C-alpha cells in the first residue's frame, strides 16, 4: 500500500523538526505543506493568527478540538495553553489519529493534548463521565462540514457549554457551512463574529466564525 500523505508529513517532521520543540514542529509542517504537498491542516497566516488570538483571549483551562487531522492545530493550541490546562482532540480516521499522536508526542505536548480516536457523536456524550470534563471553555470545529451543527447541538444537549464558552469554526465560507452559521447566528444563544480568511495557497475566500455561548436561554 503506498504511503499516505499524512505519513510523509510525519516523516518530514521526524527528520527535520527538533524533538520537544512545538514551534519547530508546526514550522516544519508549514514548510512541507507550502513546498511539497498541500494539506488541509495548514491554515493561512490570518487563520493561524485568528485562531491563536482567540485561544489567548479565552485562556481556556479545558479545550476541545473536533478534527485532529495530523495534529498541527492541536500543537499550536497546546503551545498557547496555561500550565495545567488541557486539550482533548477528536479524530475519527485511525490513520490520521496515529500520525497525530506521534507528532504531538514528538512536539512534547502529549501531557497537554489527549487524542480521542472515534466519532464526535460517540465521544462528546462521554466527555463528562469518561474524561472528567465539567464544561468546555473553548471548542475548535475543524472536522467535517456536515457535523458542525449536529455537534454544536450535542454539546448544548450534553450541558458541556457554559456562559462564555467559545466555539471557533474553520471553513465557514469554503467549503462553507451554511446550516451551522444560520444556527449560531439566529438561535439567540450565541454572540457571533466572522473573521475573513482564505484557503491556504488558493485564492478561495474562507472565514472563521467565533460563537460565544450566552447561556441556555
Ligand atoms: O474537510 C475539511 N475538514 C477540516 N478542514 C478543512 C480545511 O481547512 C480545508 F481547507 C479543506 C479544503 C478546502 C479546499 C480544498 F480545495 C480542499 C480542502 C477541507 C476539505 C473540504 C472538502 C473536502 F472534500 C476535503 C477537505 C477541510
Ligand atoms: Mg479546516
From TrEMBL:
Cofactor(s) recorded in Swiss-Prot or TrEMBL: Mg(2+)
List the protein's name.
Catechol O-methyltransferase
Database matches in SUPFAM superfamilies:
S-adenosyl-L-methionine-dependent methyltransferases (SSF53335)
Q: Recite the lineage of the species.
A: Eukaryota, Metazoa, Chordata, Craniata, Vertebrata
Which E.C. number(s) belong to this protein? 2.1.1.6
The record's section on InterPro entries has: Catechol_O-MeTrfase_euk, SAM-dependent_MTases_sf, SAM_O-MeTrfase
One GO cellular component this record assigns the protein to is: dendrite
* CDD domains referenced in this protein's UniProt entry, alphabetically: AdoMet_MTases (cd02440)
